[in-house]
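User: Can you write out an input/output pair for a complex, sequences first and structure second?

Assistant: Here is one pair. Inputs:
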Amino acid sequence: MFLSFQETELANEVWECLEHVTDPELDEPVTDMGFIEDISVDPQKRKVEVEFRLPTYWCSPNFAFLMAFDIRIAIAALPWVDDVKVTLNDHCFVDRVNEGVNGSRDFSSVFAEYCDGESLDAVRLKFLEKAFVRRQETVLLGLESKGYSGESIVNMTLETFDEVHFSNLEEAKQKPRYRSLLMSRGLATLPGDPAFVTWEGNRLTKAGLRDYLAQLRGVRINMEFNGALCRGLQSTRYKEVEIGPDGPTLVDFIQNRVPPRDAGREPAAPT
Amino acid sequence: MYKTKDGKEIFVVDGHTHFWDGSPENQSNVHGKQFIDCFYAYHTNLSPPEQLWEKSRFEKYSEDDVYRDLFIDGPDDIAIIQSTYLRDFYKNGFSSIERSTSMAARHPERFIVNGSFDPRDGEKALEYIHYMKEEFDIQGVKMYTAEWNGESKGWALNDPAAYKCFELCDKLGIRNVHVHKGPTIIPLSKDAFDVHDVDYAATDFQNLNWIIEHCGLPRLDDFCWIATQETNVYAGLAVALPFIHTRPRYFGEVIAELLFWIGEEKILFGSDYAIWTPQWLVEKFWDYQIPDDIAQERGVELTDEIKEKILGLNAAKLYNIDVEAMKEKLNAAPVQIAAE
């Protein structure tokens, strides 16, 4: 059975809103990472169900909770949605995560209970800072490789920054993401504001730029280690996913899980 | 022995290897299955395609496999076998000192077998340390701070119970403490692989050498900061090294940080066998150069002399191996190709 046109449209909308939910450690959308396994939409009941899976059975529970919560929050914000169910599959803390994210309890208390008393807001902030560092480093190195001097970088205003064009894909991708964090954290808001400040809001100095970049590099080395492992582990784990009895879904199509049209046919006889 | 293209012979001490049994017969529960599956995923993702093993062999490999992979096909002169029990996951332990010692007995000149203990066992841990010293004359131990033990999901090197154990190690001359501080594979929100406990333990036990396996990744900056302040902290390259194949530039950044912060005398090669085999790792490492921009940024270089230290000379010092004497001894007992 194929999804009705309306259901497909709505599932598409859910997918698009999940593009803004990131893996906190990698700062990559959960959709790009291939974590989302299934989206089902019931327009009558105004209900959405999402299933997701992480690269390993052992992924840290606080990441699992953060992503589960963020998925639920993002979908619940859609105007036509009344009810959301988020299911994590194949993880050592499946029961706790699924009960925590779908129950009526406040997320912070669920998080504190299962993650050794950690504060949900504090953990979120920590990961936001890492994302900031990573995006900023990419942009700073991009400017350096374009020939901008240390002095022109530390004095660059938001207005000038907006006019910079990166041809490198990663730099072009991180530029708006860096800018959006600057704005949402209130680190730079007006065209004349400096485009480069620390997470604490301090100005960068020309003399301190090299040390500052070394510090950013340290954070990135740690993040990349996790990222490389995650991506690698995930790429083998997801090969196991099977198409359900109702045929391929939208997510199957997006994730390229749909078997080729001639799959299952007899191989052509050698000629 | 690794022979370079220009004929130089490099002495190789593989600082981090295992002889495990992760087979379904030995698994106690789903955690045991998932643990070895996770290892296998590391293997499949960071190995060159021609080095991939079948799952069943990876779960449980033979004594012959070890000997061939490390010494015949591989360049190791000496391999340090680490013990890891994971008693909550595996019936007879994941890799026990008894099983490893019995394997090593066939070629005792080639192996150093380290023990392991769990400080949460209290008095029993102390008794066990005595047992390992008396029975196996161990020189080192491997600590796995994220091991589950009943309700406990981890411990720290500076827990009082751990200090009692390290005091005993010091007294008995068990000098080398290898500590797994690496990727989080066991689900603890309290991060059992946080490296800050190393700082306390290394300061309080100056006679012991603290070899931090996986160099604290993904907490390299914390680890480097601690290691620079302690004279008795070393970095084990297991898990970091395979990136030399999948992401060589990234490996360059890691090794540049290590050289800059803790220096060439304190970095140790480890293949993490059987997750990876030493042959391709050593070959690639010998041929490797840190990309210029990264080397310049940190003002470091990776010369042949430095590589030789990392591949064997540094570990030889920690384990009191007289390299020249050992070379002669090993030459007198060359690797034996098993009779078919």
